[in-house]
Predict the structure.
Amino acid sequence: MVTADGDGVVSHAGSYLLIELADRVGLTAALSREFACLQRRRRAHDPGEVLRDLAVSIADGGDCLSDLTVLHNQPDLFGEVASIPTAWRVIDALATDLDLAPVRRARAQARAHAWKHGFRPDHVTLDFDAILVTAHSDKQGAAGTYKRGFGFHPLLCSVGETDEILAGLLRPGNAGANHAGDHIRVLDAALEQLPPRAESDPPMLARADSAGATHDFLDALRERGLLYSVGFDLTEPVREAVLAVSPDTWVPAITQDGDLRDGAAVCELHDLDLSAWPTATRAICRRERPHPGAQLSFTDHDGFRFQVFITDQADTDLAALEARHRAHARVEDRIRCGKASGLRNLPFRDFAANEVWLELVLVAQDLVAWTQRLCLTGEAAHWEPKRLRYCLFHVAARLARSGRRLYLRLQRCWPWAGLLGSAFERLRALPAA
């Protein structure tokens, strides 16, 4: 028998962890202070809470504004969540002014608190990469892409050690991947998100593919005190330098775990002229046997595939330098998770509104990253959005009142109920902002 007369049952109970985390690290309060001017009526919804709820709905799997109803229809758990028209008015107000600086300041304040209480990494590596977002209708700013699609070409910057996406720049689909000005804008926005660093902290490293190998971008990194490791195109001088390397110069490459990588080796290209690039720039080449079915890029010399990057790191361990640069591929994981969290499709017609949506996606990514590193342990600290939602965020529970207290009772036989309960305990042990 199926009846519709249940009482006290809520779904998406695990997503309340994100609500409480946003309050705990001070994100909600910071957003409320920054947007207090938008609250014109005493009984109107707090714009900061509206933005927080939108970010939580995105982290919960929402990809459009109407998905906020999942939270709105459960006031016993999530409180008085704004309606869709109210949420749209907040987004429209931000899009009209086109000033996302208050959101970014609130994110930076919350990040400083999260990093202060256990999230701060020993090293900071900034990964830059552009992605393609398909538009299925004629939206403002959408254009043809280099892959013969139609949509947008945002540029993102993430932290390789923490999985946070610090900054993003929404661009038309025909924007160049190697636009130095866009890279510098995203770089400055990302640096503003980071807490102040001590003089004893190691220098930060910026990684990018060959799109980041522009003179202006590398000069900007040098001016801001960052090291760099960026891909380098295999032009004719580079090819000649690679083929001129002596066979006994190559050293074995290593994996990310430090083990030897079969069939791969690295060397430094001393004969390549790099005088036009910043001083101390070095070129490192990696060769490997291609996997079955792969096509060689420019030469079949001895059956190897070659890849080159340039860096100004002084490390003499070439294998470690190459492995550190190859770790830039992790940015693809951040992009995949971003597309699974509201970035697969930009929902609005206006370009400015979609810029606001992109910023909310970054807030959602922050909340998920902080939740995993501060509240979860073991494999759960590295789960991707799909599994997080299935195991934790979308779990059902029962609300019960006893002794003037409200209890959220998770299902006893749910395999991950203990994990979610422990996450709430760790969160509440975290000092509040």
About this structure: The longest strand covers residues 260-268. The mean pLDDT is 90. The two ends are 48 Å apart (CA to CA).
